[in-house]
Amino acid sequence: MSFLDILLIVISSAGLLHGILFAIYLCVIKKKKTLPNLLLGLILICMAFRIGKSVMLNFGHELEPLFIFAGLAFLLLIGPLLRWYVLGMTQYDFKLPAHYYVELIPFTIVFGMSFFISKNWFDAHDKLAIVIFGSTLLFIYLHFIGYIFISGRLMKKAKKRYADRLHIKTSKVIFEWLYILLIGFIIIWFSYVLNIIEDTIPYIVGPIVYSVVIYFLSYKAYDLKITDIDGGVFKENDHTLLFTKVKQIILNQKLYLESDISLSSLGKLIGVSAQKTSKIINQESGYNFNDFINYYRVQDAKVALLDVTKLQYTISSIAFDTGFSSLSSFNSAFKKFEGMTPSSFRKLKNN
């Protein structure tokens, strides 16, 4: 075996081992054991079996059909597990109904079939074996991409359902993570499919791509602290209801246009203390009171800056009209939310 082969084995196996260790952490070591974490761990274990088969097939010789079919069969598990994971991350108190296990029938059939197909049978039924292997492979990859598509649709529906809560930090984190996760699986799927189509890319590229993707997903999971949250963030509690009330009052009465609006005055309108009002806004929006108010002011200012009938209005007049007490605070807030100054925004959008 050449040095390059050894290097490729190490690289492709590294992600596989990392995925298994991450799965063990989620399913066994982590104190907060939730259904979504368990499902994610099972997905990683199933993918490890699939990638392990690829590594053995690429570097091993005369690999038994049992290992080939069994490794491919685990892709039929990943699809349903992925769908259930998305549901668990977007539904409060998600439980697995008994009828969901029907989705595991394709895996059971192919995995069971792998025990009855030997190398001798393959050699004796060459043409039939090719037909069986080819049709099974096609079904497995269509099954996998189909579930990725279904999971994406579920995520989009959930995002639409919780549109009024996407300002909440934990809600945004969940959808950001699910989007990254699905993209990762699409990349892995493409790397294998391109390999099947007339050896477009070397077979070992699949495991290597998996290693890169799994390391990146692990980093993002840590960065977003995704293993500490689940669909429970969408449960409505007293703070959620009060925040909805705060938002409605501020938007319906356009209180953000008042330069002297304060936590105490807002608290009186919803019947709670200024301290609790501040806590609710911080917790539910991820912004402090000033940033929360300034966000809506900036949205109104953007409309005014783009209005061709208000081109003669100065930046200062728009700032004061939208509730800012000074031009400097307007410029600072606008740049924070839009990444540019109001004058740059007007120039860019009106050219």
TrEMBL record:
<keyword id="KW-1133">Transmembrane helix</keyword>
<keyword id="KW-0804">Transcription</keyword>
<dbReference type="InterPro" id="IPR020449">
    <property type="entry name" value="Tscrpt_reg_AraC-type_HTH"/>
</dbReference>
<feature type="transmembrane region" description="Helical">
    <location>
        <begin position="38"/>
        <end position="60"/>
    </location>
</feature>
<dbReference type="Pfam" id="PF12833">
    <property type="entry name" value="HTH_18"/>
</dbReference>
<keyword id="KW-0238">DNA-binding</keyword>
<feature type="transmembrane region" description="Helical">
    <location>
        <begin position="200"/>
        <end position="217"/>
    </location>
</feature>
<feature type="transmembrane region" description="Helical">
    <location>
        <begin position="98"/>
        <end position="117"/>
    </location>
</feature>
<feature type="transmembrane region" description="Helical">
    <location>
        <begin position="129"/>
        <end position="152"/>
    </location>
</feature>
<feature type="domain" description="HTH araC/xylS-type">
    <location>
        <begin position="247"/>
        <end position="348"/>
    </location>
</feature>
<protein>
    <submittedName>
        <fullName>AraC-type DNA-binding protein</fullName>
    </submittedName>
</protein>
<feature type="transmembrane region" description="Helical">
    <location>
        <begin position="66"/>
        <end position="86"/>
    </location>
</feature>
<dbReference type="GO" id="GO:0043565">
    <property type="term" value="F:sequence-specific DNA binding"/>
</dbReference>
<keyword id="KW-0805">Transcription regulation</keyword>
<keyword id="KW-0812">Transmembrane</keyword>
<dbReference type="InterPro" id="IPR009057">
    <property type="entry name" value="Homeodomain-like_sf"/>
</dbReference>
<feature type="transmembrane region" description="Helical">
    <location>
        <begin position="6"/>
        <end position="26"/>
    </location>
</feature>
<dbReference type="GO" id="GO:0003700">
    <property type="term" value="F:DNA-binding transcription factor activity"/>
</dbReference>
<dbReference type="InterPro" id="IPR018062">
    <property type="entry name" value="HTH_AraC-typ_CS"/>
</dbReference>
<dbReference type="InterPro" id="IPR018060">
    <property type="entry name" value="HTH_AraC"/>
</dbReference>
<feature type="transmembrane region" description="Helical">
    <location>
        <begin position="173"/>
        <end position="194"/>
    </location>
</feature>
<keyword id="KW-0472">Membrane</keyword>
